[in-house]
Design goal:
Layout (H helix, E strand, L loop, with lengths): L1 H22 L1 H78 L8 H10 L2 H13 L7 H53 L4 H23 L5
């Protein structure tokens, strides 16, 4: 009888030891170790993404500065060309008035002075006056003349506007990377908080929240262009 009782007692102790193995401190320690590994992964992955996002944000900031400088320079060139066109147009008009008010180009006029006046006019002005003489238009300096003078400057001005738009897009990309970095920083907060908590339930909750912010930040960053 005593041997049988001892046998049952041994089986009970073995069963209790097995239950403690799977549901006692060993199980808890194993689960806590997995939580530590998960926290380490989240912290490391988030740190790498933050570093990459900071790098891209800096690059896009440089691209923006470069494009803004180019836009300003192009605008300056366009303004110079347009002001030059205004000056040429004013001079051509003054010479045109002098040409016909003085009568130097008439048969009894001074041919040398007439040639000198034409020589001082721009090539586009001479072409406009000659076309006016043959077509009898109301004014020699019409749309064709203006197009010839202002096309280059207006084209550069349009190019400057396009470059400015690209600079705005670069700024937007940099801001988007900053937003992604903010989401990933929240991941660091919740994951780091989980390391300081002993209760497995709350640790798991903090890790899940951190993992959620990490997933959102990583997906959002994956949609952004590289500089």
């Amino acid at each position: 009888m005593s041997e049988t009782s001892e046998s049952h007692r041994g089986d009970a102790e073995s069963s209790g030891s097995s239950s403690q193995k799977f549901f006692g401190t060993e199980f808890i320690d194993r689960f806590a170790h997995r939580l530590d590994l998960s926290a380490t992964f989240l912290l490391g992955f988030a740190a790498v993404l933050i570093a990459w996002g900071s790098y891209q944000s800096t690059l896009w900031g440089g691209v923006q500065d470069s494009l803004l400088t180019e836009s300003v320079n192009t605008t300056t060139q366009a303004t110079d060309l347009l002001q030059q066109a205004d000056t040429i147009r004013s001079l051509d008009q003054v010479l045109f008035v002098e040409l016909f008010s003085s009568g130097v180009c008439e048969e009894e006029g001074d041919g040398a002075i007439c040639d000198q006046i034409f020589a001082n006019m721009s090539a586009d002005g001479v072409a406009a006056v000659e076309a006016w003489l043959t077509n009898d238009d109301l004014a020699p300096f019409g749309d064709d003349y203006d197009d010839a003078l202002y096309t280059e400057g207006e084209a550069l001005l349009g190019e400057a506007d396009e470059i400015f738009v690209l600079a705005g897009e670069a700024n937007s990309n940099g801001d988007d990377y900053s937003m992604a970095i903010t989401l990933l920083t929240v991941t660091l907060f919740f994951t780091g908080l989980s390391v300081t908590i002993t209760a497995s339930r709350y640790r798991t909750t903090m890790l899940l929240i951190g993992a959620g912010f990490l997933a959102v930040g990583a997906i959002f960053m994956a949609t952004l262009p590289w500089a």
